[in-house]
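Q: I have 80 residues here and want to know how they pack in 3D. Can you give me a structure?
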Amino acid sequence: MDGAGRGSKLRSFAIGGLVGAAGAIATGRRSSYRSRRPRNAPVGLAAFEDAPCFLELVGEEAQRYREGGGETVTGMSNPT
């Protein structure tokens, strides 16, 4: 049992080491790729503020507000 158990444990340790090393190498390679987003690009919702669809929506909402007496998109009156 000593010979068979020891060889099995050694083989398992070697395979685990190889798998771990391969994972570490893959992680290192993946982190070295450069991002497609430029460093100075806006993040979060700020990225959508210059989008044509957002600007159109804001313009339509402002027009409705001026014409409709203060109702917003939700249909509730603006408290100000």
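Q: Anything worth noting?
A: The radius of gyration is 30 Å. The chain has a mean pLDDT of 78.
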